[in-house]
Write a structure and sequence with these properties.
six-stranded antiparallel sheet; binds iron/sulfur cluster; Pdz3 Domain; 15 helices; globular; 3 domains; pyruvate-formate lyase- activating enzyme
Length: 437
Amino acid sequence: MLKITRVQKNSIGAELGLEKGDVILRFDGHAAEDELDYLYYSALEEFTITVKDGKTGAEVEVEIEKDEDESLGLEFEKNTKIRTCHNHCVFCFVDQMPKGMRESLYVKDDDPAMSFTCGNFVTLTNLSDEGLERIVRLKLSPLYLSVHTMNGALRAKLLNNRFAGKIATQIETLVKGGIEMHCQAVIVPNENDGEELAYTARELFKYYPAVRDLACVPTGLTRYREGLTEIPDVDKEYSEKLLDLVDLLNAEFGVNFLLPADEYFVKAERPFKEKEFYGNFEQIENGIGMTAKFLSEAREALKKQGKRQLKSPKTSVLVSGVSAAKANATLYAEMENAVTGLTLCVLPVVNEFFGSTVTCTGLLTGKDMLEAVKRHLEKHAADEVILAGNTMREFEDVFLCGMTLGEFEQALTPYGVRVKVNRSGGEGLVKLLSENE
Ligand code: SF4
C-alpha cells in the first residue's frame, strides 16, 4: 500500500480530493505494493484506484480517465521494506561477511523492484504466481535473474531451497509475458559447470533474445567460510577450460550469449575480449567486461591526448586490487610512456580483510589500502596516491570499512602526498596521471 505524503496543487490527485495521509490500496483491483505500481498505472489513460481515507478509514474506488502524460501529482511515504531471499546458497557472499560491518551489507535482497530499478539479481524463489504475474503486468523488464542452473534438482541443492527447482516454468511465463532477462550463473566447480553449464546455456538460449545473455561468474570466497560448504577455488587450468567451453557454446549459438567474468581471463592468463564482445556492457556491475571497457577508454584517451610532457616530474602510486594490477599491466606501461616525467608505481593490495582469494579492487577496504600505501611510502617517496572510486560507497567518500576519505588523507599527511580519487574509468585515470596538480 502507498501512503500519500503530498498532493501537488492543481493535479488530478487534488481534483479527486486526495489528501496527505490517504492510502492507495489497489490499482485496477491489484494490491499496490510500491511506487512501481504507481509509476506504471499513472502512465495509463484509464484505471481505477482504491483509496482508504486517512481520517475516516473508509475505502472508496475511484475511476480515473486522463491523458497518458498527465500525472496524478502524488508523493508517497518511502517504502523501506525490501523483499529478502528465502535461500541459503552454498556460495552466498553475505554469509561470508565478517561481523560488525554496516547493517545494509547483510541484507539478502531478492526483490524484483530492486532488480528492475538497480539491476540487482533475483532468484524468484520468494515469489508466488501473483508475484510473477505482477512482473509481467507492470512490465518490469529487463529483469536480472540468478539462474545458476536450469537443472531444477541441482538448483534446489545449490540454493538450499526445495522450491528453487521451478525456474524453467518461471522463465517461460516471463518470456510469454514479454519480459526480457539478463541471467547469471555463479559457477560452483564440479556442480553447475561443464556439461551442466552447457545444458543451462542451451536451455536458456531457446529463449534468446528474450533471455539476452548468461553471465558466468566465479564464487567469491572470503576467509570467513567456517561451517559453510567447501567450495574449491578456481585456478588457471579450470579457468582455461571454462573459457574454452564458453567459446564453444557461443560459436554454436552464433552470438556472444555467454559472458564470462573478467576474473577467469586473469586466472587463465588470457587476453581479454575486445569491448565489442560485451555489447552495451549490460552486465558490467557483475564484473563482466569491466577490464575491456577500462582498457578501451584509457587507450582512446591516450590516443586523443598524444604525447604529454609534465611541467615537473612526479611519481604516482596507483592503488589497485591484485587482479586489476595484473590485468592492466601493459596499459600502465603505455601510460607511463605516453607522459614524459611520470613515474607510475602500481601497488597491488592484498585483501587482508576478506582474504587473499578476493582480488578485485572494489572490495578493498580503506584500512588495507592505507596500510599498504604506508608500507610503500616508508621505502619509496611519491607525490600522489590515486585510489579507485569504486572502493567507496556510491555518492559518498566512505570506504567499505567505514573509514572516510578525509581520515585516509589525514593518515598520509606525514608522507606529504596528495590523494586523488579516480571516478571516471580509463579516461579519468589518463587525465589524473597527465596533470601536475
Ligand atoms: S539468493 Fe543466495 S546468494 Fe543471494 S543473498 Fe540469498 S542466499 Fe545469498
